[in-house]
Amino acid sequence: MPYIGQAPAPKVITSSDLSADVVTESKIADNAVENEHLNANVITGHTALGATPADTDELLISDAGTLKRVDFSHLKGGGAYTKLLTTTVSSGVSEVAFNSTYITSTYTDYKIIISNLLSASEASLRLYFSTDNGSSFKDDFRYLSYQVDSNNSTGIARNDTADAAFVDITSASALRAESDGNAFFDINLFGHSDTDSAVSVQFEGGYENNSGRAVHVRGYAFDDTPAHTFNYVKIAMNSGNISKGFFTLYGRLV
């Protein structure tokens, strides 16, 4: 602005001289905003995701000092299991099932972890598999279950005629009704989407049997007609209800 006479003395601009939001992106020099100018609320002030990021979700990363964006798919790692669902049983139910919403071609293998399991009656734990989302169940399994208890007694349950409609995990020694020693099982399912391979089941676990003894069990099973894929797994006792337990399904892409 033109003036008459002596020029006015320079004035230091303070924050009070600037209107809110007056400084635009074009007025900030590249690389001028450094770490001391960032508050933690640039992260904490935003809405929490509250779930595992999707493969295409993006994160900011420093690549040898250069900032880059990266899809989460590159960070989650290959071969790791992803938690898909936990079903909690707090009162009697006849079964727990994982259907085709969760068992899909997205994953190659699946794992089921059962913890704090209580059976309402003296009964054996069984797995059932379906190719039509639970409308019918396969009836061609061969299985073997080996058990040893705290008295050093052993037991074997098996079916070798390829006509079982289930995999019987604990039939050599039943779970004690409403046991003080809650049962746990780690069950691995392989080949569900490979029509050239049999569905294979590998399992291990521990429980209190109907004689009040601690039991360790492990075993293997497979179906005898591999030209299919399964999309439904049911967990049930051979009689009575499941009283309590946590049932978690995981998926893994090899």
Write the layout of secondary structure elements.
Layout: H1 41-44, E1 58-63, E2 66-71, E3 81-89, E4 96-98, E5 109-119, E6 125-130, E7 141-149, E8 154-164, E9 167-168, E10 183-190, E11 200-208, E12 214-223, E13 232-237, E14 242-252
Antiparallel strand pairs: 1-2, 3-14, 4-13, 5-10, 5-14, 6-9, 6-13, 7-8, 7-12, 10-11, 11-12
Walk me through the structure:
The N and C termini lie far apart (71 Å). A hairpin with a 5-residue loop joins strand 11 and strand 12 (214-223). The protein has 254 residues and is an all-beta fold. Helices cover 2% and strands 42% of the residues.
Give the total of beta strands.
14
> What is the end-to-end distance?
71 Å
Structural class category: mainly beta
Share of helix among residues?
under 10%
Our count of helices gives 1
Largest sheet: 8 strands, antiparallel
- SSE order, one letter for each helix or strand: HEEEEEEEEEEEEEE
Name the poorly predicted regions: none
Mean pLDDT over the full residue set = 88
Strand content: 35-45%
Which shape, going by the Cα principal axes?
elongated
Strand arrangement, major sheet: 3-14-5-10-11-12-7-8
Gyration radius, rounded = 30 Å
Summed up:
The protein is mainly β and 254 residues long. The chain has one helix at 41-44, and strands at 58-63, 66-71, 81-89, 96-98, 109-119, 125-130, 141-149, 154-164, 167-168, 183-190, 200-208, 214-223, 232-237, 242-252. The strands form 3 sheets. Strands 3-14-5-10-11-12-7-8 form an 8-stranded antiparallel beta sheet, with no helix packed on it. Strands 4-13-6-9 form a 4-stranded antiparallel beta sheet, with no helix packed on it.
